[in-house]
Specification:
It holds the Pfam family Beta-prop_NOL10_N. By secondary structure, this protein is of the alpha+beta class. Among the domains are: 136-263, YVTN repeat-like/Quinoprotein amine dehydrogenase (Methylamine Dehydrogenase, Chain H, 7 Propeller), CATH 2.130.10; 373-416, no CATH class. The chain contains 13 helices and 34 strands. The chain has a 5-stranded antiparallel β-sheet with strand order 1-2-29-28-27, with no helix packed on it. A hairpin with a 7-residue loop joins strand 21 and strand 22.
């Protein structure tokens, strides 16, 4: 049993406790109950008070003996006998149940509205009759004086089925496009229906005429509420002859007096979820409203919160057991929750022992995993060295891992890491030491880079925090803790150079501004202490003083800037003189450079020409190449252009060609001279 307390109201969750895996056999469950004390002490108020998957609706018969619930899957209804504290019967249905109503004092007459437009009647022995309505239904109510069933749903009509005559009667034509919920007042039998447009239409069943219209969507919008879209009606409940509570799809509950079109009170759940259920508790004048996330109990006169509950799973329906403090919920989970709140009333007669138990119960947190089993993944098994157990009876496959006995897990963990306890102990000791250190006076740790700037920012932040505390303002974020400026105090490249020209010119102005800010803070603190902030004359005097001070400050920092400029000029002159002296002292000496083998010396003019040529456009370069003869552009017969290029030869190739050319010329001259000598010799022989 789990105990929670909110606003000094104790809430006992009777369905909380250790949960056993579904795949365990009954024999193993009984063995666990014998061995484990906590499981044996678990309170199971009603045996097997659950559904296979989800429970959607839950109701109590008028005699209080039977609790009926519907859910899935498969669609079914279960009836629990409170006198026997167990399930009486279970009936499966053809389709899911939207809602149902118990017409008799016990379970002998039940009507089910199903999602397939079917209306199914059950008697004490089981299924009795089944019919169908023209449109999909969403809710229905039973009118006892005339034995009529009023069905509302995805239609503008309200269908009437008379159970005495066994036939459909003329339907009621409404102005709404669709209707979500309906209810009949138990005193004067006024029929009310909530529409998708956010309106409530009230009809008189005797005359079959509409007698009232409430625009709840407009009334639900207040200054504090934020609504997206048009609110529709999702819940409706009468209280007595004159009061009616309306729940909207945006999470507001409106309490009306039927004599007025304005709501008495508007309560917002602040979750933006549709209101699922509304119940009235008359002993303490409370309204119990629930959406899918939270159940709130609040005073219907003042709207003050009495207490609230947030179950682990989403809520589908809430049922308050009559004249008691027991509350039951249908959830998006197999187990249906049972809560006992002693402040609301005593325990029911069939479980009066709860009053004695609640006095001795202690808080026991509900665990979300199986306490006797540990869920491990395949990676965890490999780390523990238990991968060889996969497929054995010691591991039970479940989803993406396995269930294993918690004792085996602890033993394997101790063997895999025997020093885990020592590490845990050291960590705890370190945490304790840090907690004691936090109570001491902490020194300010300055960063390595820009220490003076960081110290200045810390001092300014301390002054601003003191001033903001007095004025009750929010503190601005610190630049030292901001990630955007973190590098400025870590990277040495961002170090402020105090000898630079820019810093020396700006430093007087910055220092004067900081001094001015400090003076202003002191003046404001003095004004706050004297209580003269809202008076006009002192403010005028302060502004005059500030203007005079600002003029003096401006004169002061202007003079400082002038002094700094003079100093900078003098330093520049000294630097120039030193450079001239160094130039005069140094003698220019010729320097010789050696060219490596295989390389040729190229003049600087060639590189300059190449750079100039690269800067020119393609057209200019083509014209220059055409003049030099390395490029020839001609027209073809087809009409296109043909360009031929002559590649430039290297210096070595050019010298080789010149040498070959010179060698050829020398050979030609030698041949000519030899032929000339032969001819002269031949002539001389002839003369002889």
């Amino acid at each position: 049993m789990q105990v929670s307390s909110l606003n000094e109201v104790k809430i006992y969750s009777l369905s909380a406790g250790r949960s056993l895996p579904e795949w365990l056999s009954d024999r193993k469950k009984r063995a666990l109950q014998k061995k484990d004390v906590d499981i044996r002490r678990r309170i199971e108020l009603i045996q097997d008070f659950e559904m296979p998957t989800v429970s959607t609706k839950i109701k109590v018969s008028r005699d209080g003996q039977y609790i009926m619930a519907v859910g899935t899957y498969k669609p079914r209804v279960r009836c629990f006998d409170t006198y026997q504290l167990s399930q009486k019967f279970e009936r499966c249905l053809d389709s899911e149940v939207v809602t149902f109503e118990i017409l008799s004092d016990d379970y002998s007459k039940i009507v089910f509205l199903q999602c397939g437009r079917f209306v199914e009647f059950h008697s004490q022995h089981g299924h009795y009759y089944k019919t169908r309505i023209p449109k999909f239904g969403r809710d229905f109510s039973y009118h006892y004086p005339s034995c009529d069933l009023y069905f509302v749903g995805a239609s503008s009509e309200v269908y009437r089925l008379n159970l005495e005559q066994g036939r459909f009667l003329n339907s009621l034509q409404t102005e709404a496009s669709e209707s979500n919920v309906c209810d009949i007042n138990p005193v004067h039998f006024l029929f009310a229906m909530g529409t998708a447009e956010g309106k409530v239409e009230c009809w008189d069943p005797r005359t079959r005429n509409r007698v009232g219209l409430l625009d709840c969507a407009l009334s639900s919008v207040t200054a504090d509420t934020e609504i997206e879209g048009l609110p529709s009606i999702s819940a409706l409940k009468f209280d007595g002859a004159l009061n009616m509570a309306v729940g909207t799809s945006t999470g507001q509950v409106l309490l009306y007096d039927l004599r007025s079109s304005n709501p008495l009170i508007v309560k917002d759940h602040h979750y933006g979820l549709p209101i699922k259920s509304i119940q009235f508790q008359h002993q303490l004048d409370l309204i119990i409203s629930a959406d899918s996330r939270i159940i709130k109990m609040w005073n219907k006169d003042t709207g003050k919160i009495f207490t609230s509950m947030e179950p682990e799973h989403d809520i589908n329906d809430v049922c308050l057991y009559p004249n008691s403090g027991m509350l039951m919920t249908a959830n998006e989970a197999p187990k249906m929750n049972i809560y006992y709140i002693p402040v609301l009333g005593p325990a029911p007669k069939w479980c009066s022992f709860l009053d004695n138990l609640t006095e001795e119960l202690e808080e026991n947190p509900e665990s979300t995993v199986y306490d006797d089993y540990k869920f491990v993944t395949r990676k965890d098994l490999e780390n523990l060295g238990l991968a060889h157990l996969i497929g054995s009876s010691l591991l039970r496959a479940y989803m993406h891992g396995f269930f294993m006995d918690i004792r085996l897990y602890h033993k394997a963990k101790m063997m895999a890491n025997p020093f885990a306890y020592e590490e845990y102990r050291r960590e705890k000791i370190r945490q304790k030491i840090e907690e004691t250190r936090a109570q001491r006076v902490q020194l300010k740790k300055l960063p390595k880079v820009n220490k003076e700037l960081a110290l200045k920012l810390i001092e300014e932040e301390g002054e601003e925090q003191q001033f903001s505390k007095k004025r009750k303002q929010k503190n601005l974020p610190s630049l030292l803790k901001d990630d955007r400026f973190k590098v400025m105090f870590e990277n040495p490249d961002f170090q402020v150079d105090e000898q630079s020209e820019e810093f020396r010119l700006l430093n007087p102005l910055v220092s004067k501004i900081s001094e001015k800010r400090k003076r202003k803070l002191k003046i404001l603190e003095e004004l706050e202490a004297q209580g003269q902030e809202e008076e006009e004359e002192p403010e005028g005097k302060a502004s005059d003083a500030e203007s005079s001070e600002s003029s003096d400050d401006e004169k002061g920092w202007v003079e400082e800037v002038r002094k700094q400029r003079k100093l900078l000029r003098q330093e520049e002159k000294l630097k120039r003189q030193e450079r001239l002296k160094e130039d005069q002292q140094t003698l220019l000496k010729p320097q010789f450079f050696e060219i490596k083998e295989g390389e040729e010396f190229r003049s600087f003019k060639d590189s300059a020409k190449k750079q100039k040529l690269m800067k020119k456009t393609l057209e200019d370069r083509l014209k220059l190449e055409e003049k030099l003869g390395t490029l020839n552009v001609s027209d073809t017969t087809v009409g296109s252009k043909q360009a031929t290029f002559k590649l430039k030869k290297s210096e070595q190739q050019r010298r080789q060609q010149e040498a070959e050319k010179q060698h050829r010329q020398e050979r030609k001259t030698l041949r000519r001279s030899a032929s000339h000598l032969k001819s002269r010799r031949g002539r001389g022989r002839l003369f002889h």
